[in-house]
Design goal:
The structure holds 3 protein chains of 3 kinds. Chain A is mainly alpha-helical. In chain A, 74% of the residues lie in helices and 0% in strands. The longest helix of chain A is centred in the N-terminal third of the chain and has 23 residues. Chain B has one domain: Helix Hairpins. In chain B, helix 1 runs antiparallel to helix 2 and helix 2 runs antiparallel to helix 4. Classes of the chains: A mainly alpha, B mainly alpha, C mainly alpha.
Amino acid sequence: MTEILVALILLMIIGALVAIETSNLLYSVISIGAVGFLLSIVFLFLAAPDLAITQMAVEVITLVILLRAIAGSDREAVSDHRSILGTVVTLAMVLILAGFSVRMFADPDFPKFGQPVMDRFEDAPSNKYLRDGLEETGAANIVTAVLLDFRAYDTLGEATVLFCAVVGALSILRRKTKKHPDEPDEEKES
Amino acid sequence: MIYALCFVLILIGLYGVLVRRNIVKIIISLLVIEYGIHLFLVLQSYRPNGVPPIVEPGTEAAVWMQQSVDPLPQALVLTSIVIGLGVLALMVALSIRLYERYETFDISKIRKLKG
Amino acid sequence: MNQPRSSEGMSMIVKTVCGWMKAFILLYGIHIILYGHLTPGGGFAGGVIAASAFVLIVLAEGKTVGLKTFSRKAASTWDSVGVLVFLVMAGLGLVLVGTFFVNFWVTDESAHFTLFSSGIIPVCNIGIGLKVCSSLYLVFVVLTAMHFALNSNSKGEQP
């Protein structure tokens, strides 16, 4: 099982590298779609079916929105030259972070893969959710019970954030008329 | 180790955000960071040969507690996925407006033009 | 091949197939919302799937038919209705029992694994499903189907 997961995550890394490095914007959007669908399959192997359904549906809408973002422009990212100093500094930073992370993962106190928190501590909240979830809420799907009964405030916050994001996106794209493309600039500035 | 691979994914996304000059590439790199973080959280909840946390009629409590995976990180990631979609819509709206205004996606040119 | 006379939307094959598919996609989304407390899914996943049904209508049939099916004002109204359902269920917890967001309607042992069990969870799922569906549809319509200054047709390039 771990080998399948390692293979899928390696494919995701290759897809992410292709998406970031290629100069044609359409290819990078297609690659990021592939990474998202591979993530949905990884969720299915990790015994999380809610997440697999949600990730797949969200990935479809993400692809449509990203295709809209590049549709009106030229497909080749012509002006994507890089400065040498910026790349070298970023690579150095990334390598330092990678070095620290290797040190962290090699620490013997770091939890191994396959041992969730509820195994290590007896009073972890997940033990209570799994034990009393069905009687206290009556829902068979414990993830929904956690989302909407035990941790309903998080869902309330999520609904608020989604509302604000959509209102923000709509107010950015508001237009005065459709016939005068120059006028909305003055209206947006005020 | 799987956590190291997941961290490599996050670092690739971080490299993309810092180095690329095209706004759509920056948005795509932010998406890669998001995928890496969601993967890391769900990897924390896995148990070998685990079953999804959905109760079926006729299971008893002790066996169920040994078998099921952790439901708490899955609930957190579920809301995060949908919020990520809303934030992506906001970022793409901003980039469309910027393209109309400056006719380029290059952030170094957008910095130089005066509004 | 040439586009038909109403140049909005896609070709006749795509329109015919989408005419069959959109009902199934919407029905599947509603099923995932309603059975969210029994099978995997819930309000978020079902809402996104139901939004993709309406997105399919706009992509296949064009802007005018799509907006006639689900206009922007209707989407904005249903968005607010979804959030209000969620908030009213939370406030009813405060009014009826005394704590803000408590599940005041839990039924007993005999109603487990049925559709009408587990209190306010299905109602909250419906509220969240409405909200997510309308929000994502509204964002998609405003992003893609409005006129822009630099493009000549309303949706940009055909994918």
